[in-house]
Design a protein that fits this description.
CATH architecture: 2-Layer Sandwich
Largest sheet: 12 strands, mixed
Radius of gyration: 18 Å
Mean pLDDT: 89
Number of helices: 4
């Protein structure tokens, strides 16, 4: 089963400063990439949390989806998460047994999860593998060593999609799935994701995009009931596309 979507635009145009707004407003309509009796796949816009933030009544992907499913007496159950300022594919289950099967897949790292990221500078190779050991400290992943009993192994594979002016568009495949993994690992090699002020404070000066330039572009998983392969693709939102256009060199300069 293969599905492809040029992601629907359900977030109202908010300009380049939406991230700094105290209470950004999101459309109550949801952009669904796939839905059946067992699962729902959303195109989450940047800035919308995957789940509610403690102490806040601002909307989240979970709360909006739950409200949409309530009239049909269906539930939305979290399977995995992506960062608040990351856009793209987000998977939910509708029943407890379906969620349990999907969560086991994610714990076993069997789903194919690919992201598009714009990183600073040029990478040493057109494709490669990054392996680090990360230790969670509060909201951050800190570099550690294999000997650290509290550190987790982080592995990803990347391939260069396009060379840009002072940056590179890469496709990243997660082998493991730690929180902030892509951001932390590229920052660790001196190639931070554009706009990622959390792991590279200098990125706060970025003006071409008002968030981390990271998009969940592709997901493959085994359907919890049929066991059929479900493959979802999602094109980046406008702000990500504008960043790439702004950094794209003239055709004659591309290598």
């Amino acid at each position: 089963m293969r599905l492809s979507s040029f992601c629907k635009r359900y977030m109202a145009e908010m300009g380049t400063k939406w991230q700094t707004a105290t209470n950004p407003r999101f459309s109550r309509g949801l952009s669904l990439l796939y839905e059946d009796d067992a699962v729902v796949v959303l195109d989450k816009p940047p800035g919308l949390p995957a789940v509610p933030i403690g102490g806040s009544d601002s909307p989240s992907a979970l709360s909006l989806l739950s409200a949409r499913l309530a009239p049909k007496r269906q539930r939305a159950l979290v399977v995995h998460r992506i960062d608040r300022f990351t856009s793209g594919i987000l998977l939910f289950a509708k029943t407890g047994p379906d969620r349990e099967i999907l969560v086991r897949q994610f714990l076993g790292h069997t789903p194919v999860r690919q992201y598009l990221a714009v990183v600073r500078g040029r990478l040493a190779a057109r494709e490669g593998t990054l392996v680090h050991y990360l230790r969670r400290e509060g909201m951050f992943q800190r570099l550690s060593t294999e000997k650290d009993a509290e550190a987790a192994r982080a592995e990803l594979r990347y391939s260069v999609e396009r060379l840009l002016k002072g940056a590179t568009l890469v496709r990243v495949a997660l082998v493991t799935g730690l929180q902030n993994q892509i951001r932390a690992q590229f920052s660790a090699i001196g190639r931070p994701v554009v706009g990622d002020r959390k792991y590279h404070p200098e990125e706060s000066a970025e003006r071409l995009i008002a968030r981390v330039a990271l998009h969940a572009a592709h997901l493959e998983f085994a359907h919890p009931r049929s066991r059929e392969n479900v493959s979802i693709d999602c094109e980046p939102p406008r702000d990500f596309e504008r960043l790439i256009q702004s950094l794209s060199p003239p055709a004659r300069e591309r290598r």
